[in-house]
């Protein structure tokens, strides 16, 4: 079992690449780096140990989701003051000011509701959206088949789209 610092050092570049691929806004790579650093600081405070690289990545996706939700809340406050656009999310990744995207706060609420129905599908969704892992990487991380990941991801997207249509 590796300690957090060792895991972070080993996976830092991968996390930064994933964050950079998923986070597109006016600050670019600098913001992706700050996202990874903020995630690391949060992960350092956890009491739990990580059994594997995969467990670390799964936890990191949850932490990044929470950080981006917090940023979305801050943007929402600034938006009311007329200073900033909301942070938006697509089902394929994060973006800033892109058409047909969902506010990160709305996605967070939907994922919280969907978790009661299908926790594994939410975990797959988090890993895909917030870390940018592909189906093969998610399957390896969760130790399930790619077919299961594809099925759960399709179900999650369909549920999310139906709920978004009802808003």
Tell me what you see in this structure.
With 167 residues, the protein is mainly α. It has one domain. It is built from seven helices and three strands; from the N terminus they run H-H-H-E-E-E-H-H-H-H. A three-stranded antiparallel sheet has the order 2-1-3. Helix 1 crosses helix 3.
Defining traits:
167 residues, mainly alpha, three-stranded antiparallel beta sheet, 3 strands, 70% helix, globular
Helix content: over 70%
Percent strand: 5-15%
Roughly how many Å is the radius of gyration?
16 Å
Identify the overall geometry: globular
Q: Name the average pLDDT.
A: 75
Strand-pairing-aware structural class: mainly alpha
Low-pLDDT segments: 24-29, 94-100
Order of helices and strands: HHHEEEHHHH
The side-by-side strand order for the widest beta sheet comes to 2-1-3
Number of strands: 3
**Main beta sheet strand tally, sense and closure:** 3 strands, antiparallel
Distance between the termini: 45 Å
Oligomer: single chain
Count of DSSP-assigned helices: 7
Give the tally of structural domains.
1
List the helices and strands and how they pair.
Layout: H1 4-22, H2 29-44, H3 53-80, E1 87-90, E2 93-96, E3 102-103, H4 104-115, H5 119-131, H6 135-142, H7 146-166
Antiparallel strand pairs: 1-2, 1-3
Helix pairs in contact: 1-2, 1-3, 2-3, 3-5, 4-5, 4-7, 5-7, 6-7
Quick overview:
The protein is mainly alpha-helical and 167 residues long.
């Amino acid at each position: 079992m590796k300690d957090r610092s060792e895991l972070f050092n080993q996976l830092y570049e991968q996390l930064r690449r994933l964050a950079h691929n998923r986070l597109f806004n006016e600050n670019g790579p600098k913001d992706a780096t700050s996202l990874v650093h903020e995630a690391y600081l949060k992960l350092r405070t956890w009491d739990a140990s990580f059994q594997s690289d995969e467990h670390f990545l799964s936890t990191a996706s949850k932490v990044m989701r929470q950080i981006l939700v917090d940023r979305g809340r801050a943007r929402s406050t600034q938006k009311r003051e007329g200073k900033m656009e909301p942070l938006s999310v697509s089902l394929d990744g994060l973006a800033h000011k892109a058409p047909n995207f969902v506010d990160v706060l709305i996605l967070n609420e939907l994922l919280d509701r969907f978790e009661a129905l299908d926790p594994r599908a939410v975990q797959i969704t988090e890993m895909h959206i917030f870390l940018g892992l592909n189906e093969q990487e998610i399957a390896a991380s969760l130790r399930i088949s790619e077919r299961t990941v594809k099925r759960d991801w399709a179900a999650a997207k369909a549920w999310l789209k139906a709920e978004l249509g009802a808003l």
